[in-house]
Write a structure and sequence with these properties.
The protein is α+β, with helices and mostly antiparallel strands. It has helices at 5-18, 51-60, 140-148, 156-166, 195-206, 237-242, 296-306, 312-317, 353-357, 360-369, 418-421, 426-432, 481-496, 500-504, and strands at 41-47, 68-71, 99-100, 117-118, 167-170, 185-189, 221-224, 226-227, 229-230, 233-234, 251-254, 258-264, 271-278, 281-293, 309-310, 324-325, 342-344, 380-386, 401-406, 441-448, 456-458, 469-471, 508-509.
């Protein structure tokens, strides 16, 4: 990277200019605001157009007799978001809400102000506009356990047909019967891989992990990453599920419209509509059947509490009339990761973004052919799921840790974007990562699959335009099991890097202490 983020956006302008305009800008592809009458009534109102909201709006509008309204707080993303190689940059645009966690002791001590950036998409397509496009269904045992808890219809056997129906998969290696073609959502291998990831995948097999289709029969093992890409470009929820059905007359979509309250009858406790803001004015829309909130893990609880559904004591302290005393926002699980595992290697087989974004060939390969290094999904190249030696789950095939393998270190962009995304102070970056802007290195990020620490969400005030207050509460579980799992994962990572294959690269763990309080 040049050190100047403007250069990245100039490059994206070049990319956009090479694309057929009609592939992104379709006349009247949205039913505009003027097509929705004041106080209009629908059968269903869907709040939020992320992956859930987009699918729900698509499916409900299959019934011609049902009128469906989809309301999105953000706008329509520009073609720039379809470049996977710079996906991390979009978390610093208007396509992200800009949320941060509250400052707490016990984690993020090495981050600026001890806070964590909570990326949360604000555009048609939700977080699928700004995320890293990694396709993971989850473990079949989770679905079976949810059903066993009293949720009929949630077993893996029952949800698998819906995964298959949605999917248009084109993968080199996959388990028969676990993928499908012809659905809305494109799932592919990433067109470009560094030579580094081939070494890591081979090393994982030497360490005893099978090569698997982690969205197939079993999840445990190593695999090249599967991604939401179509022709080497991002396949967002908008592209997959909304654009193909824009011509349905019974589907209305409002962008740049923020729902501020769900309307609930205080007697029957039934929802009957929403209040939303658009162009600095308030409007109402009504629902004959249902209001469905799919506004995400932070905004849905915020909206419910603003509407009078939540913990009684919290709502009363903010002078919000209580319609239902429920533990909304009381339990939030989040998958933390650790950035401090960095390995220096002796071969130049990793991403060097300076060489990518300044290469006419790379830009042309991507813009014209959908190939080349720019198709990499933010540098993520492989996943490894395993069960650590501190797991207490009786199932031997139930992983508690995931390794996310990067084809470089987070300094590959010279600290322009990734450092800021992870909220790393410049002093810390210079001490640990600065050298590896020019020296070959790669990272594996361990991520907890089943965290035991529980966070929570509260309202800042009853003003709907104030951010919710999120408390991640990482490493707060009483038995310190999350910390123990991380330590076990780091030891496993060290074992992986002692394999014959990684020794060929001279993979050496960087042991510089991470600054922090």
């Amino acid at each position: 990277m040049t050190g100047n983020p403007i250069f990245t956006f100039v490059w994206c302008g070049i990319f956009a200019s090479l694309q057929p305009v009609q592939s992104f800008i379709m006349p009247n592809r949205l039913n505009n605001f003027n097509d929705v009458k004041i106080n209009e009534t629908f059968d269903f109102i869907v709040i939020g157009s992320g992956p859930s909201g987009s699918v729900i709006a698509n499916r409900l509008s299959e019934v011609p007799e049902w009128k469906v309204l989809l309301i999105e707080a953000g706008g329509i993303a520009l073609p720039i978001v379809e470049a996977p190689g710079i996906c991390s940059a979009f978390q610093f645009t208007n396509y992200d809400w800009g949320y941060r966690t509250q400052q707490q002791d016990g984690f993020c001590s090495g981050c600026i102000n001890k806070t964590l950036k909570y990326a949360h998409g604000k555009a048609l397509g939700g977080s699928t506009i700004i995320n890293f496009m990694i396709h993971v269904r989850g473990n079949r045992r989770d679905y079976d356990r949810w059903e066993a808890m009293g949720n009929p219809g949630w077993s893996y056997e029952e949800v698998l047909p819906y995964f298959l129906k949605s999917e248009d998969a084109h993968l080199d290696k996959s388990d028969p019967g676990y993928h499908n073609s012809g659905g809305y959502l494109s799932v592919t291998d990433v067109p470009y891989r560094t030579k580094l990831v081939d070494y890591v995948v081979q090393a994982a097999q030497e360490a005893g992990y099978p090569y698997v289709d982690y969205n197939g029969k079993e999840q445990m093992g190593v695999s090249y990453v599967q991604a939401h890409l179509r022709n080497g470009r991002r396949c967002s929820a908008d592209k997959a599920f909304l654009r193909p059905v824009m011509d349905r007359k019974n589907l209305k979509i409002l962008t740049n419209s923020r729902v501020v309250k769900i309307l609930i009858d205080p007697v029957t406790k039934e929802t009957y509509g929403v209040k939303f803001a658009k162009r600095k004015k308030y409007y109402y829309a009504f629902a004959k059947k249902e209001v469905i909130s799919s506004a995400g893990g932070l905004n849905s609880p915020q909206l419910l509490m603003l509407s009078g559904v939540g913990p009684k004591d919290h709502l009363e302290e903010l002078d919000i009339p209580v319609l239902a005393d429920l533990p909304v926002g009381k339990k939030m699980y989040d998958h933390s990761t650790f950035l401090g595992i960095l390995f220096e290697i002796n071969q130049k087989i990793v991403f060097v973004y300076d060489e990518v974004i300044t290469s006419i060939k790379e830009i042309t390969d991507f813009a014209v052919l959908g190939k080349g290094q720019i198709t990499s999904i933010g540098g993520v190249e492989a996943l490894l799921y395993f069960k650590s030696n501190v797991s207490t789950d009786p199932d031997p095939l139930y992983p508690d840790m995931e390794f996310i393998v990067l084809g470089a270190s987070i300094s590959a962009d010279n600290g322009v974007i990734m450092r800021k995304m992870f909220n790393i102070p410049i002093e810390t970056y210079n001490k640990i990562w600065k050298k590896y802007e020019t020296t070959p290195a790669y990272q594996i990020m361990p991520m907890l699959v089943h965290p035991r620490s529980v966070g929570y969400i509260k309202l800042k005030s009853k003003n709907p335009f104030h951010w919710p207050k999120s408390y991640a509460n990482f490493f707060s579980d009483p038995e310190n099991h999350d910390i123990k799992t991380y330590i076990a994962a780091i030891r496993e990572m060290q074992r992986l890097n002692r394999t014959p294959t990684m020794r060929k690269l001279g993979a050496t763990l960087i042991t510089i202490p991470i600054p922090g309080e």
